[in-house]
Amino acid sequence: MEANSDNATSQVVTGWDLKEFKRTDGTEEEQKRRKEVRAEAREQWKEAAAQRGPAEATEEGVTAEARWIRDTAANILDKFTKPRRMCMRSKRWWNQEITDLRKELGKARRADRDHRTGATRAARRSLRRAIRKAKKACWNNFLENASSEDVWTAVKYTSPRPDDSAKPLISGDQTAITREEKEHMILTAAFPAPPEDNGIIAPPGGKAYERINQSLLGRILASCSNQSAPGEDRMGAEVVKLLREWDPARISTLTKLCIKSGTHPETWKTAKGVVIPKPGKPDYRQVRAHRVISLLDSLGKLVEKTAAHLIADQLERDRSLHEGQYGCRRRRSCVDAVAVLISDAHQAWNRKRIRGALLMDVKSAFNNVGRGHLVDRMVQLGVQNHLVRWTESFMSQRKVRLVLNGQEGEAHEVDTGIPQGSPVSPILFTVYISGLFPLEATVTIEEEAAAALEARSGNRPGLTIFTDGSRLENGATGYAVTWKKGLSWRGHKTHMGWHQEAFDAECAALARALQVAATRTHHVGTVTIFTDAQGGHLEDPMVQNLHRDCIRYTKTLTSEYTAE
After folding, report:
1. What 3-state class would DSSP assign to 319?
2. How far apart are CA 243 and CA 241, in angstroms?
3. 530 pairs with which residues across the strands?
4. Considering 20, 233, 305, 373, which has the largest number of Cβ atoms within 10 A of its Cβ?
5. Closest alpha carbon to 83 in 9, 30, 23
6. What is the rounded average pLDDT of the residues 201-205?
7. What is the pTM of this model?
8. 3-state secondary structure 100-153
9. What's the rounded mean pLDDT across residues 438-442?
């Protein structure tokens, strides 16, 4: 290989070329040779796995197993596949003609060392002309075969890209010039100091890991793109799929043990943090005009995607999230949220009313997630303990190796945030902000309960409301409010979370009853509210404050309230 800048190829291996390894076309002799290579590689893996034995169901055993799979797979792929290196020929427009012209340019340069014939200039001109031609042909081919989804990709390709690699970064009144200064500024902005940890540690336990099987992992891996950039292990999703073909039981067992033991191996906790500019920013010297995308190990991402599935599935089955919380949820995507907003607006217009919407943006959302608050919130929502423990392990002792302008730096510890690039981050963020939504659900009143309520109300005139608040043995607090609407009884129950007293639930139930009354007092006369024994009476100062708040809430509240 020529040792010049034009021919130089990066010696850093970015992965392995599995296309050639898996090829089934070609002559009969070539097919036979490739088949023998694949069989030998698989046999070597089986021999190494037999010598290794099963993994231990401990934190140390899971970590050792993850490291062994990574190292053994890398050794076998190094031996039987062609390494993939990043170079100029990695461009999709590169073709054989350009390769030949590069060789001609090298010959011309060697000839011109002794005799100035001008051949180098002519060869360089021909190479540049061929490159322009190849780029144009590649672009036209992309446009001709582009689907409707590729339109935005074309727009991104044609948009000007900022090139501020040599410019300093600015944060407030601070300026970063050197690489070290830029790294420090980016880390400070992207990974702020975490809030104080509340020290909650979930005990062992849970059965969600029992749902992990070959069928589930197969569906999860099928949804993984082979084009995703690998992390430090250099293994893309295609390599993980190959390992599962060789040894499905070991991959499944490792995934199960990670969730069951609540362990995310340290091997997977160091991410490549690629710093990229945010689109549409006016000044790319500002550090906030950039974001850090984490490239994670693909085998670790399989476990993360499995954990995301288990967490989301439990939250949906238990109806732990508010029905009005959209994003990162099945059948409640951002598109669904827009559709609901449009529908509400049209309904308001039909009633000659105005519908308002308040739009807010969470600044550096993923990077500001605090581990302590997230774990606390997962416990409040009743997420199984081993999933909570795995989340805590996933967010602990993380490191990031920033990649600035294609150059990789040293690993730095980060104490807060969830990786922007992890498949589990969206559902974890959904859990993190779920406390902003009241957990209220409609209650179905059974016939026997409705009869009891009817007898208790004693056919009182006006509106009769029953309230009850309680605290369960597991510490969860909530309340229910029931009232008669027409000929049927209607109710709502609300989950308030943990670390609150039963009296708080009683007062919240009374406040909710006052709100129900406030919306119906122009249809009824007297309003009677039956409260639980701990609810207090209207003489209670706290209840009086709630009463005044409700009066301020609506001017139509003029009825008589009777507490019994």
Report:
1. coil
2. 5
3. 466
4. 233
5. 9
6. 75
7. 0.68
8. HHHHHHHHHHHHHCCCCCCHHHHHHHHHHHHHHHHHHHHHHHHHHCCCCCHHHH
9. 54
